[in-house]
Amino acid sequence: MTFIAVKAGFPRGILLQELEDIFGFIIELDKLKGVLRKTRPIGLQRYENSAEHSWHVCMAAIMLREYANEPVDIDRVIKMLLIHDIGEIDAGDTIVYSAETPQVKAEEEAGLRRVLGLLSEAVAQEYIDLWLEFEAGESADARYAKSIDRIPPLLHNLHGDGLSWKENAISEQRVLNLNSRIKDGSSAVWDSLESKLKDAFSKGLLS
Amino acid sequence: MTFIAVKAGFPRGILLQELEDIFGFIIELDKLKGVLRKTRPIGLQRYENSAEHSWHVCMAAIMLREYANEPVDIDRVIKMLLIHDIGEIDAGDTIVYSAETPQVKAEEEAGLRRVLGLLSEAVAQEYIDLWLEFEAGESADARYAKSIDRIPPLLHNLHGDGLSWKENAISEQRVLNLNSRIKDGSSAVWDSLESKLKDAFSKGLLS
């Protein structure tokens, strides 16, 4: 998608204020680097933050796109994943196994609206709509994006002694139940990960 | 851009190996979260890593796209920025003031080729080409992406007492000279940041 540099004809005062607002937004985003998740990047002795996670899922989405169950618009998927955790700047990260309550989602939405509120109303609305679509998980793009969002934490646990599952007392059955949603976006990816999980459980990953 | 799930007709054995390779690539990417840069996110008492930086520049690119000097394909710009630092997994991060030597660039390219080499040759080549385009900085997309890549570290220094410039003994003149390349992608953004820099220097940011 090509964007023309449409700002050339705008009055300078309006432009400068808008640019200031965007710089303020970019600065605000730094806070997502301080929001800690529940898993650790493989090989690192610290918890992952939501900003680096957001980058990681974008890369995973690109490389797995041909395994999506349905045609997806990868550029929309990437934008969804870039912004999907911004609300955590205010709401913090909640492990997915307890995050799917109306209260947690309302806090994340309020946070997203507050941070995007630093931008113009039209831009904010575009990304609020994209987040709502992601959360609803009813479009092909959202189904695929939500599948992808599960993959790195699952790999972190598989390659990191199930650390976050043990620390948060998540049973094998809950792991399998919750992550089975991956098949809504990609049954090929879920088939592969499900057999890896069952194999790891049989070898005592969580015992 | 819409991608059809083209893998449905492939023999299962080939699919499974390719999927394993992609999982291996996703796992390898975790290492970029351990590559430390020279600036600190605003408000955090640690150095930034190249993975979270990659996310941050994607967000900045989206929100500043209307300020690009020339029409840009924002989806290509985002992909460039998502992958632009992957070579640092092997090469490490070098502050931009000393990074632009043939040796540093060769190390980054070798790293990129090694990591992308975990994927199929066609996919690897697509992203190597995108990185080479970014590094050459001769297309409108690359000029804009390279401009954007400078913005968060500049804001980090402006809002963080010029920490990395002081720690690395970068003079005011070098800051202005190097970052003036921002105007190749967006003269409006550079006009604004240049006056912020001069104002901060006049108030003693680096003294």
Automatic annotation (TrEMBL), chains A, B:
<feature type="domain" description="HD">
    <location>
        <begin position="29"/>
        <end position="190"/>
    </location>
</feature>
<dbReference type="InterPro" id="IPR039356">
    <property type="entry name" value="YfbR/HDDC2"/>
</dbReference>
<protein>
    <submittedName>
        <fullName>Putative hydrolase of HD superfamily</fullName>
    </submittedName>
</protein>
<dbReference type="GO" id="GO:0046872">
    <property type="term" value="F:metal ion binding"/>
</dbReference>
<keyword id="KW-0479">Metal-binding</keyword>
<dbReference type="GO" id="GO:0005737">
    <property type="term" value="C:cytoplasm"/>
</dbReference>
<dbReference type="GO" id="GO:0002953">
    <property type="term" value="F:5'-deoxynucleotidase activity"/>
</dbReference>
<dbReference type="InterPro" id="IPR006674">
    <property type="entry name" value="HD_domain"/>
</dbReference>
<keyword id="KW-0378">Hydrolase</keyword>
<dbReference type="Pfam" id="PF13023">
    <property type="entry name" value="HD_3"/>
</dbReference>
